[in-house]
Design brief:
This protein has about 300 residues and is an all-alpha fold. About 75% of the residues lie in helices and about 0% in strands. It starts with a helix and ends in a 6-residue tail after the last helix.
């Protein structure tokens, strides 16, 4: 994990500083400020140093979770991130739970009823889910259920707490839009893995012994089928984190995605670097958990 995270910090820092535009100019706008003042502000944020020196200073602070202050607002970056983080975690967790709850049972049913109506329906839904961009799906959901039917509000009730019934009800649409593609992918993977397991000799032997079909499917075939699904399920966290940036903008959800988009627009380097590093750490940790669960599901694996 350490070399991967180091590479993430290096690439993130380099790409952020290759963005066109000067953050000091974005911050001051058209204000009539002399070049001396601008240069002083660049020194305040170490922007006058070579990029490699800026990277070393930033990395030293980041190791102690000190990401400095926003160039635009002057507020502490850690404070801004921690304020928005719970909303993004809630959205990502809701989307991931929707993925797991729908994809695994549907994949099992499609495998057990292979080539029947249920299988054909799941195949159509899966292809449609993969093909639809999540931002388009989000807009369609909002148009149908918020504008036409009036079941949801167009904007989140930000005056309410995050875990209030009003906010949790509003969360349904963005969570569905965010989790649809991952649900479709895992559904098809679950189906193919389950079909492969059901055709193996040990399943035929279990049936020959007279074990109940439900026990064969849920106790024997399911556990072995989940081995390949777990890895992809962890990788879907990356797609959910990336998709949250777009979905939060579509639904005006007050999370890190909107903060990242606003920070890129304003060239607020400290916030961009902190958020991209946080996303990278999340994805690396998700893969680590996938490896651990993979070994637990398959005792033959030893690291």
């Amino acid at each position: 994990m350490i070399p991967v995270l180091f590479g993430v910090t290096l690439i993130t820092f380099s790409l952020v500083h290759l963005l066109p535009g000067d953050p000091i100019t974005f911050m001051l706008g058209e204000a009539a400020v002399g070049e001396e003042v601008r240069e002083e502000m660049r020194r305040e944020y170490n922007l006058h140093l070579p990029m490699w020196e800026q990277y070393i200073l930033w990395l030293q602070d980041a190791m102690f979770l000190n990401f400095g202050e926003s160039i635009v607002t002057g507020r502490d970056v850690g404070e801004q991130v921690s304020t928005r983080l719970p909303a993004t975690i809630l959205l990502g967790l809701a989307a991931w739970l929707i993925t797991m709850v729908i994809a695994i049972p549907t994949g099992i049913i499609a495998a057990v009823r292979k080539d029947e109506a249920a299988d054909e329906a799941s195949r159509f839904v899966a292809l449609a889910g993969v093909a639809m961009p999540n931002f388009w799906l989000g807009l369609i959901l909002m148009l149908i259920f918020a504008v036409n039917l009036g079941w949801f509000t167009v904007l989140p009730p930000t005056d309410q707490g995050l875990l209030t019934p009003e906010m949790l009800w509003f969360l349904i649409l963005p969570a569905i839009a965010l989790g649809t593609a991952s649900t479709a992918i895992l559904m098809r993977l679950m189906r193919s893995s389950m079909i492969e397991e059901l055709n193996k000799d040990y399943i035929m032997f279990a049936r020959a012994k007279g074990l109940p079909e439900r026990k064969i499917i849920l106790k024997h075939a399911l556990r072995n089928s989940l081995i390949s699904v777990v890895t992809i399920a962890a990788l879907q966290i990356a797609f959910i984190v990336d998709g949250a940036v777009v979905i939060e903008e579509v639904f005006a959800w007050p999370g890190l995605g909107r903060l990242l988009v606003d920070s890129i627009t304003r060239r607020d380097f400290p916030i961009i670097q902190a958020l991209v590093l946080l996303i990278g750490v999340t994805i690396v940790l998700a893969n680590l958990v996938a490896d651990i669960v993979y070994a637990w599901l398959d005792p033959r694996i030893r690291y």
